[in-house]
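Encode chain A's predicted structure.
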Amino acid sequence: MMAGEPRITCCVFAWDEVATLQRVVEAQLAALERLGVPHELLIIDDGSTDGTAEAADRLAAGHPVVRVIHHEQNRGLGGVYRTGFFAARGTFVTFFPADGQFPAAILERFYPLVESWDFVLGNLPERRDQLLGALLGRVERVLYRVICGPMPRLEGVFIFRRAVLERLPLRSTGRAWTVVWELILRAERSGCRMAPCEITLLPRTHGASKVNNLRNITANLRQLLALRRLLDD
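Encoded structure for chain A:
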């Protein structure tokens, strides 16, 4: 590895998160510094219209390790992950939302593990708040297993070796995060080593969740049915 080449790429994705973006990016940068390895932070602005794009550009201007990619229109989680998969330069790649719900300290738990594994998958403890969201998430996981069979447990954030992308074709399209499940399922079936890691989830301080709702879960399930056909080809 050449001097300065990133060991880890942290992708921070944002859709109208101007209220939290700077705080999240600065926390992630501090965590990356504590790791003591070359790194980069890639902000993926997913078609924001609230000032997030301008805030992202200011952060990149102030930090040499920060890059920004702007989507002209909102592409959803699927578009965000595909952009990060293509643009990341690090040996290891991770994704964090800019809403601040996943603390930057998770990076410091992930990195030592992923040195010995191909994937480290975040797992949340059982939640007793927001009962509707928790119930929807549980039902979604059951339906995923019914459609695709046994699946690794993943809730929220993860880190993986970027080299895996070079040997696993990803064919999923669309806005949902089905492309992540395609990556993980293809990787598991090809023999990649996966480790769980318990993580924490913080309450949102601004706005409402754009992920854990019936509309997104329905879209995810439709795309998962399409993924099942892709995996069977």
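The chain has a mean pLDDT of 86.
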